[in-house]
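User: Predict the complex with iron/sulfur cluster.
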Amino acid sequence: MSKPDASPPPSPPEEPSLAVQLFGTETPWFAQGLRFQCTQCGNCCTGEPGYVWVNRQELEQIAEYLGEPLEEVQRYYTRKVGIRRSLIEFPDGDCVFFDSQTRRCTIYPVRPRQCRTWPFWVSNLRRREDWERTCQQCPGCGQGELVPLEEIVQQAAKIRV
Ligand code: SF4
Ligand code: SF4
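Assistant: Here is the predicted structure with iron/sulfur cluster placed in the model:
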């Protein structure tokens, strides 16, 4: 009788790291980290029309924070874009939750992931030129504390923008 095979089953192939999944390499051009410190200028909540994506969970948190029913938050503050939803903007391009008097976000504690992870979006990080373009829009980029690669990659992985 042959002995049972005592060798352990082959382990499943390891998943590529987040850096590899997002940027195709363990050492993207910003491997030494990037500087960022928000100056609270409000530029990223205003200006050119765009999209601030929100999912159901984020809308629920916003509704709870505002003390308004989810359906009303959805109806009055968002619009459908394909199968997704975005916050709406005022005609001047300001986000619907931007207070132009104080230049602050009125839902700051529950702002969507897209806002929380700015400026570390894949679209801002693919090439050095993308980051340089971002620095022109956001005075906090390239300033202040050095944010390490691991943190940047974790932020970028939270939402694909
Ligand atoms: S544009 Fe940059 S510096 Fe200005 S509020 Fe947004 S993140 Fe902060
Ligand atoms: S939700 Fe708040 S942080 Fe996000 S774009 Fe609107 S005002 Fe800015």
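DSSP finds seven helices and seven strands in the chain.
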